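Annex B. Sample input.
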Amino acid sequence: MLTYPQIDPVALAIGPLKIHWYGLMYLIGIGGAWWLAKRRLADFDPTWSKETLSDLVFWVALGVIAGGRLGYVLFYDLGAYIDNPLLVLEIWKGGMSFHGGLLGVLLALLWFSRKHNKRFFELVDFVAPLVPIGLGAGRIGNFINAELWGKATDLPWAMVFPTDPQQLARHPSQLYQFALEGVALFTILWFYSRKPRPTMAVSGLFAICYGCFRFAVEFVRVPDEQLGYLAFDWLTMGQLLCIPMIVFGALLMGLAYRREGRTA
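Annex B, continued. Sample output.
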């Protein structure tokens, strides 16, 4: 069994001001995506200025934060937030939904594509390979917060998390998700998108890979306490939300290559 590294969730405290690692992970994710977007901008649209790209990053970041928080409220714990609406503002404590953040980003990209006369899926294909940077950073934030841990196990890399009232050796599922949703997904999308692909193909591959990775990890991750399993003593909300994502991703890739075949 590995020893969980005791990391203070507060990275820096200046008087009453506290800067949490979880929030810094979002800044790292957004900053890393911005830097890589600059490298890819000339291939995407050489007419775009740095200011246009900055606007895109701003609206995408807003979609991630607003959509992620509202998605968590709606999908995972609506009752608690109805009882205490101010909990919505406590982002540093966690409680962000990827699927809500995805919807927020898609709405932001839809608006941005119309404003700048870009086809929606061209813009989504450009942004998709950048997203795993934020996903990976977010999972490290979950690990530092000692939240979203996995089921009990006797595997040699199991850990006891300080927030676990049972103090059991558990799967470090946050690190599994970092490796899959962060490292593996970035590597797949980055190398796949380096060559010209039909529009919607990169978006479809993102949806398929993320959905499959998340679905798999949910088998060893403890479901949210307030929800538990939704069906069959194993189906979680995360898996339920991934099913349409995988199907939609497969449809996108099928349409993308069918269209390419027709125009070839």
